[in-house]
From TrEMBL:
This is Mannonate dehydratase. InterPro entries: Man_deHydtase, Xyl_isomerase-like_sf. Belongs to the mannonate dehydratase family. One of its GO terms (biological process) is D-glucuronate catabolic process. Keywords: Iron, Lyase, Manganese. It comes from the Bacteria. Its cofactor is Fe(2+); Mn(2+). It comes from Rhodoferax fermentans. The keyword Calcium does not apply. It is an enzyme of class 4 (lyase).
Amino acid sequence: MKMTFRWYGESDPVKLEYIRQIPGMYGIVSAIYDVPVGEVWPIDKLQALRDRIEGAGLKFEVVESVPTHEDIKLGKPSRDRLIANFQQNIRNCAAVGVKVICYNFMPVFDWTRTEMAKQLPDGSFTLAFDAEAVAKIDPEKGISLPGWDASYKPEELKALLADYKSVDEESLWANLEYFLKAIIPVAEEVGIKMAMHPDDPPRPIFGLPRIVKNRDDLARLVNIVDSTSNGLTLCSGSLGADLCNNIPSLVKEFGGQGRIHFGHLRNVKVEPDGTFFESTHNSCDGSLDMAAIVKAYHDVGFEGYWRPDHGRMIWGETGKPGYGLYDRALGAVYLNGLWEAVSKYAPAKA
Ligand code: DNO
Ligand code: MN
């Protein structure tokens, strides 16, 4: 297991030099943020990013995310040009030493929350999702969500939602299949492992289809192209927001097949109706047994990358919700501790 940390580039208030000081930190997960979605990331920008990260004593082997243009998910005629650009991005990432690319196939919205700063009894702030509040939102009347309000103009969002009216789960699967059949051979050729991030939360929202929610979806996805380059980012917090998903058994099944390349590790406190908040990483604070998850990774001999996923905002920290330094650093240290314990006392199964 190689521990990594997400970094948003020079504008990120969390400095690379601080990340370097987290014990056991191997590398940085980042992306090119100033190229429009669907366009090619220039190789010199990627080289500069790699050199900056390596200059700080860390590795740059994981990209999160190469965004998937909506026209690819919608199956529009423009997708062929956009897929060719995505293929070029895979090649360019490989050229600078990237090994894993995280991406997702969620229509319109990536992660969805109803609250960006829910205060917990200990005084910290966290991201939360209220299932009832989301059920009450009528997409026809406009969707206002914290974290997404600035992403689309109201009329853009309306047009996009109208486009998705003709896309149900099966047509989204068909569009994914078309995409995977085009990109996975390129990834294989240049030695990149593609790692699909599951839907967050793992349920349809606002009438939009979501297809990467549970064990059967993951199995269908990896079978579309039978290649280790067609793999997963197993996000414990995203999948764990559905209490029916058993994360250790998903790690055993898909990790055992060599299809998990990237683990997002975080904990969530979940109610039966799917309402949840992001807790500390520790098992005692959330609904997930993090020790069991870590042990499952160890049992399958996991050699890929991990990162602590979102953290709470603590110790007076401000900045991008979920992506402060302190709680993610505590998460990394806790996860490294669990890993050391299972490595010493529960040797990997052959
Ligand atoms: C949530 C986060 C996601 C993730 C993207 C990856 O759990 O990890 O926002 O960054 O979905 O494409
Ligand atoms: Mn995640």
